[in-house]
Amino acid sequence: MAQDVLTDLSKVRNIGIMAHIDAGKTTTTERILFYTGVNHKLGETHDGGATTDWMEQEKERGITITSAAVTCFWNNNQVNIIDTPGHVDFTVEVERSLRVLDGAVAVFDGKEGVEPQSETVWRQADKYGVPRICFVNKMDKMGADFYFTVDTIVNRLGAKPLVMQLPIGAESEFIGVVDLLSMKAFVWEGDSKGDVTLGANYETQEIPADLVEKAKEYREKLVETVAETDDALLEKFFAGEEISIDEIKAGIRKLVVANEIYPVYCGSAFKNRGIQPMLDAVVDFLPNPLDVGAIEAHDPRDESIVIERLPQADAPFSALAFKVAVHPFFGRLTYIRVYSGRIDSGAQVVNSTKGKKERIGKIFQMHANKENPVDDLMAGNIYAVIGLKDTTTGDTLSDPNNQVVLESMTFPEPVIEVAIEPKTKGDQEKLSTAIQKLAEEDPTFRVSLNAETGQTVIAGMGELHLDILVDRMKREFKVEANVGKPQVAYRETIRKTVPKYDYTHKKQTGGSGQFAKVQISIAPLEVEADKIYVFEDKVTGGRVPREYIPSVDAGIQDAMQYGILAGFPVVGVKAQLLDGQYHDVDSSEMAFKIAGSMAFKEAARQAQPVLLEPMMAVEVRTPEEYMGDVIGDINSRRGQIQSMEDASGVKVIRALVPLSEMFGYIGDLRSKTSGRAVFSMTFDSYAEVPKAVADEIVQKAKGE
Ligand SMILES: Nc1nc2c(ncn2[C@@H]2O[C@H](COP(=O)(O)OP(=O)(O)OP(=O)(O)O)[C@@H](O)[C@H]2O)c(=O)[nH]1
């Protein structure tokens, strides 16, 4: 069934399927792969047979964590599907995918409507300007309500839906849809019971009598919405003239590409209903790489110089790596989106983010059940390549003679950490390998070694994120280890400037001694993104020789790893080396490093050190009757309420709450609200821990 890669970019769609956890993203993707002919046997997601979920954990947990790209073909168009994860802990993966998508299908649960997590993902898609169509899934489910779901698109997302279909029948009687463009009914015969080979195809019929009026009303709305955007169409509309389907489609396409409107489809992925018309809509309305146009890149030598790259074969090559995965047979596989140019396998490129040469090895397009080798990389398309050694997620690959850097991706701060203690020396080695491999795939976790306890500390986005990392270490890399409880990633900072601090490191132990004298100043520094520390050399007259100055810097950074209050990393420091003294024989890099480190430790004690904790932006949606309880609970967790709003019959409460108070929140919220409230949270900022709480944390850290 493999087809050659299309070179006509107007026939390429790079899309994502985005959804709240359990809305049916995996099932929908599976059905798409079935209908597009590459998947002959459907995997039922929770039996572990789904082809996009090839990691063990995904099979067991039934959730899609990694984004794999799968290529399929629909009516002679090539559709590349980039799988986007739906869990809140993996929003970085979602952003990473959104970065390389041209359009998306937002899948909603037809009973729940827009859920908080779909809202988060929706807003992320807004941020990247990704045009979308909506698929209201699970129309066969008890309580499914298409019109309610459409309302939630308005109320909860503030977006403008365009109803393209009406459901025929509801719940177990849901049999098909009215297509408002052709004004026909598409009916899927028979009950598939989740087996796609049963009742997979639809028949075109007349609209059932009881839906004719409603269909007319909705078609009128549809045509009016489209006509309003085009003077010529509007004239026709008011003159009562027929506007052709092609004219309507062209109008919708323009509005979708401009992110002004979101066509809404419905169906039941599980029962194989509604997938084909939704695929037609992907092709009809979502943008192709030409619609998206030029991408903005930067000169690697000077970020302020903007360079545009057009999706053309004869432009200089540029591509973004958005995923590194370890394939069971090929080893390291790098997923890339090519933005411009065309190059063959074997070509030399440059990783312009890291300034390293790379060679493109074999190139594949990943189909659902096999890899399809291709000869070259083409602008506008998505590929998996082997042979790249140093490229990790977020890196740009360029033409060596025309280098650019595509906007790099920002990742939220990892705020939860877990300590891992390998059982044997062998396990320690396995752990290092595991960490290195996992870091290539996922740049969102950080690793540090606690020199005092010998523990390896891994920091990530949330409890589940860490859970999965640890699980993979044990399972894939066979690391035997004791794993601690997840802890909040506290930080320390200083509040006062210490303008001058002298420290002399002197040691005489037989032979040659050690001597270094430094005078430093430290001051609070506003933390911005990765800028958590600044070092300035203010030494004059060679009083500290050039070669020792970096050692002082390194010594201070070493000391900052373990803050003086409770051993948490210190951030937000501007350090200056003001003066010093050396000895011809006894001074060394090591001596200056120790002096720098000790000078910082002692100076920091005078700089009013404080503890910082991660604050989470929490959003709770609750029926009004539980609002008092929810707010009371947030207050008792040291939360600050930011706003309260009404949205489609529920109250939306937004608050800033310390992460340390959010462990186990989901269970408490469920029991307080009889399971009727939902919440989402994302990292917001670091804030100073109130004195009383800080004292407790310090006590505990010292006790341990
Ligand atoms: N009744 C009904 N159930 C569905 C439908 N689509 C999916 N499901 C079920 O809903 C559950 C979740 O479906 P998935 O496809 O795994 O959902 P997902 O959004 O990929 O979930 P994650 O991978 O966990 O994010 C499974 O038990 C599916 O069988 C549908 O159209 N109707």
TrEMBL record:
Chain's gene name: fusA
Record InterPro entries: EFG_II, EFG_III, EFG_III/V, EFG_IV, EFG_V, EFG_V-like, EFTu-like_2, G_TR_CS
Location within or outside the cell: Cytoplasm
Protein name, as recorded: Elongation factor G
Tr-type G domain residues: 10-290
Family of the protein in this entry: Belongs to the TRAFAC class translation factor GTPase superfamily. Classic translation factor GTPase family. EF-G/EF-2 subfamily.
Keyword Cytoplasm in record: yes
Species annotation: Leucobacter komagatae
Keywords: Cytoplasm, Elongation factor, GTP-binding, Nucleotide-binding, Protein biosynthesis
GO biological process: ribosome disassembly
MF terms (GO), sorted A to Z: GTP binding; GTPase activity; translation elongation factor activity
Amino acids binding GTP: 19-26, 83-87, 137-140
Function text: Catalyzes the GTP-dependent ribosomal translocation step during translation elongation. During this step, the ribosome changes from the pre-translocational (PRE) to the post-translocational (POST) state as the newly formed A-site-bound peptidyl-tRNA and P-site-bound deacylated tRNA move to the P and E sites, respectively. Catalyzes the coordinated movement of the two tRNA molecules, the mRNA and conformational changes in the ribosome.
CDD domains documented for this protein: EF-G (cd01886), EFG_III (cd16262), EFG_mtEFG1_IV (cd01434), EFG_mtEFG_C (cd03713), EFG_mtEFG_II (cd04088)
One protein family per Pfam: GTP_EFTU
Main location: cytoplasm
GO cellular component labels: cytoplasm
